[in-house]
């Protein structure tokens, strides 16, 4: 029963359930990472099982790969899949142009590679992720451990000439050790508060030696599905400007999960 779920989880489930409607038989699909994406993987597994769909997936983290495989979903590498039809992933923030901040879970490097190797990227989010201006959520930078402090100094220097409201670069920790990504790199979380020009910031950050990838997704996302705790969903498509509203029966949908 979805009544046992928190309002936040009901909203995540609603967006996830609506987004898997875009999956078609035979597709090669990118699977995002995070709590919303985890709901999507459960919904996808149910559709594959109930409809006998032939779906090949590429995961954006070891976490997601393990979850997908445990639910019987076929997972291959991106090089094996070559190219993807669709990627469905969560986000930490999105704006009116569907530019995103991602990487709250430390997976934005693989997520960006997978999303840009897809014909289409659909973001799944609850309404709290929508912002007028990106930047309240700290922007993650994946950075090589080698020369980390030098890279951090260069990042903070570069930020002084950019249109942002804060400059603090905080090393993400896992207990008393630096957090390590799937690639073995570190994460600097940039507390910028407001990002005036996301495109410029993204380009400048990726020019700094040691920075592997930043969490800004500019002109990558094609549509967002916003889910609400009462089962309402709204899908906005950036290319057509269309808005599609659907009501998900959360209890009925939950009963189909079986996982
Ligand atoms: O690295 C993590 C990813 O970018 C996630 O998609 C993002 O942090 C959103 O996660 P959640 O759905 O848990 O809010």
Descriptors for this entry?
single chain; 259 residues; alpha/beta; Rossmann fold; Alpha-Beta Plaits; 2 domains; eight-stranded mixed beta sheet; four-stranded antiparallel beta sheet; 8 helices; binds ribose-5-phosphate
Which hetero compounds are present in the coordinates?
A: ribose-5-phosphate
> What's the structural domain tally?
2
Major β-sheet profile? 8 strands, mixed
In the CATH classification, which architecture of the largest domain applies?
Answer: 3-Layer(aba) Sandwich
Discrete helix count: 8
**Helix and strand composition category:** alpha/beta
What percentage of amino acids are in beta strands? 15-25%
- Evaluate the radius of gyration: 18 Å
Shape summary: globular
Amino- and carboxy-terminal Cα gap? 13 Å
Strands ordered across the widest β-sheet: 3-2-1-4-7-15-16-17
What top-tier CATH class of the largest domain fits best?
A: Alpha Beta
Please tally the β strands and state the result.
17
Secondary-structure element order, N to C: HEHEHEHEEEHEEHEEEEHEEEEEH
What is the mean predicted local confidence, pLDDT? 97
Binding site for substrate: 33-36, 89-92, 102-105, 129
Subunit structure: Homodimer.
Pathway: Carbohydrate degradation; pentose phosphate pathway; D-ribose 5-phosphate from D-ribulose 5-phosphate (non-oxidative stage): step 1/1
Protein name: Ribose-5-phosphate isomerase A
């Amino acid at each position: 029963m979805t009544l046992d779920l928190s309002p936040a989880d009901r909203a995540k489930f609603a967006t996830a359930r609506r987004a898997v409607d875009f999956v078609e038989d035979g597709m090669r699909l990118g699977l995002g990472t995070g709590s919303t994406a985890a709901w999507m993987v459960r919904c996808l597994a149910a559709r594959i099982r109930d409809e006998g769909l032939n779906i090949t997936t590429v995961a954006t983290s070891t976490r997601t790969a393990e979850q997908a495989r445990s639910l019987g979903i076929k997972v291959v590498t991106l090089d094996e899949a070559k190219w993807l039809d669709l990627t469905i992933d969560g986000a930490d923030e999105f704006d009116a142009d569907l530019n995103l901040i991602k990487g709250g879970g430390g997976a934005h490097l693989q997520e960006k590679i997978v999303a840009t190797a897809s014909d289409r990227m659909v973001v799944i989010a609850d309404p709290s992720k929508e912002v007028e201006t990106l930047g309240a959520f700290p922007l993650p930078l994946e950075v090589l451990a080698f020369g980390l402090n030098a890279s951090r100094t260069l990042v903070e220097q570069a930020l002084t000439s950019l249109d942002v409201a804060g400059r603090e670069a905080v090393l993400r920790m896992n207990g008393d050790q630096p957090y390590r990504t799937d690639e073995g790199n570190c994460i600097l979380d940039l507390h910028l508060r407001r990002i005036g020009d996301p495109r410029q910031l993204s380009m400048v950050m990726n020019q700094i030696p040691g920075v592997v990838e930043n969490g800004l997704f500019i002109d990558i996302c094609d549509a967002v599905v916003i889910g609400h705790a009462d089962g309402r969903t709204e899908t906005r498509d950036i290319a057509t400007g269309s808005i599609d509203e659907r009501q998900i029966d959360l209890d009925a949908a939950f009963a189909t999960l079986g996982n």
